[in-house]
From TrEMBL:
Belongs to the peptidase M1 family. Pfam families: Peptidase_M1, Peptidase_M1_N. Residues 1-21 form the signal peptide. It catalyses: Release of an N-terminal amino acid, Xaa-|-Yaa- from a peptide, amide or arylamide. Xaa is preferably Ala, but may be most amino acids including Pro (slow action). When a terminal hydrophobic residue is followed by a prolyl residue, the two may be released as an intact Xaa-Pro dipeptide. Residues 59-227 form the Aminopeptidase N-like N-terminal domain. Keywords: Hydrolase, Metal-binding, Metalloprotease, Protease, Signal, Zinc. InterPro entries: Aminopeptidase_N-like_N (IPR045357), Aminopeptidase_N-like_N_sf (IPR042097), Peptidase_M1 (IPR001930), Peptidase_M1_aminopeptidases (IPR050344), Peptidase_M1_dom (IPR014782), Peptidase_M4/M1_CTD_sf (IPR027268). SUPFAM superfamilies: Leukotriene A4 hydrolase N-terminal domain (SSF63737), Metalloproteases ('zincins'), catalytic domain (SSF55486). Its EC number is 3.4.11.2. This is Aminopeptidase N. The lineage of its organism: Bacteria, Bacillati, Actinomycetota, Actinomycetes, Micromonosporales. It comes from Paractinoplanes lichenicola. Residues 267-459 form the Peptidase M1 membrane alanine aminopeptidase domain. Its cofactor is Zn(2+).
Amino acid sequence: MRRAPLAAAMLLLLAACDAPAPAPTPAPTTPSVEHVAGLSEPLADPLYPQHGNPGLDVLHYDLDLTWQPKTLSGTATLLIRPTADAREIKLDFKPYGLGQVTVDGANVPAAVRGEKLIVSAPARKDRQLTLAVPYRGTPSTTPMPSNRNDAEPLGLTVSPEGGLWTMQEPYGAFTWYPANDHPSDEALYDIAVTVPDGWSAIAGGTPAGSTGSTFRYRSTDPMATYLQTLAVGRYKEITASGPRGLPLSYWYRPGLDERLVPSLRKSPEFLTFLEKRFGPYPFPSGGIVVVDSRSGMETQQMVTIGGRIPHFYPGPFEEDLLHEYAHHWFGDSITPTTWRDLWLSEGWATYAQLLWKQERHSMSDADLESVLRSRDAGLRKQLGPPGKPQAGHFAESNVYYCPAAMLKELNDALGDQRFFALATAWVQTQRNTQQDRASFITFVNKHTGRNFTSLINTWLDSPTTPA
């Protein structure tokens, strides 16, 4: 009578032995040495939360693209480190026709809805995955959330002669490749662009050679998506050397941009001015590409400058070039964590531009102070303080001149020697990082041994010009 319970127990034991073992929790994967520089800690943006995905950290973009006028085709291969578990992979992307999307080589369903690529494959925190997206279509732009007088649609734009160019701040990279389109996610890049015979393709990063009509670029320093660029057209290249033999390239279109070339050739002078104040240029190459825009962008290693200027004057144009080069220290090498801290890039670049102008025009410190305070007062009244930007007024003048006025106060308090020692230490020790107001204040106070918290916060937050 006692064998029945024993037999039942034996059956249960045998059933348990035959059952499949629970799947082990996958161990986290560590980025290779090649890709570790692409590690980021993405955030949701307080101004533009519809762009970017804080659950994904893209380590590397490999873009293999072809442009035949009106049609962009190719494959984007992304190495991604999920920062949270998710049922699907979601990236910013404009509607293009999709080929067969794969994750780690396996076919997966995917679709573009609105301005999002939705890939029906799970993501596991810290488990790297490789997403390959073939696509084809005609580029289209997205509106810029700004009232600037040079505001234009953002993203990849088709030029009248059938070429391409792009401006994409605060977003717009998603108009030509699947992207985690937010400054808190920086990544490495390999780009190959095949264009019609006789045309050239220019992108951000270091030139990696060309074969036939295919042009290649590589970024071994991490780059935010808004700092990438692409220009395609009948370009001519001028090569030059900057300080310490830095390789430089200037790309212009014969018949359209010749009047700008003498100013482009002054790049070594601009970079020498900046290096004396902020230390060595932070990237292995630099240059400028001229496009059909009215604006300019500090795109990484290759400034994108608009040549559509109704009334061209070399002086102001060259000040703009110096401003964009200054961003390679302030904005590219050190990138704001979110768009709330755009002042941290634009304030420094504007102050560098004003120092250049002060030197060229023998402007006194008192005159510079007067100009800055006058601009500051009007801009705070019109747009509010620079530390509290409005989403519909992206990159308007309050985030340029008001923080530049704050830096002038900091310069006055420290004197030139200590101020530029601070600036150099900031950009040289924090290279390839993302920073915000709190980290900047902490750095300033620690480096100077003085407490500038109140000065900085007051200038960033006051509705009126501080005393």
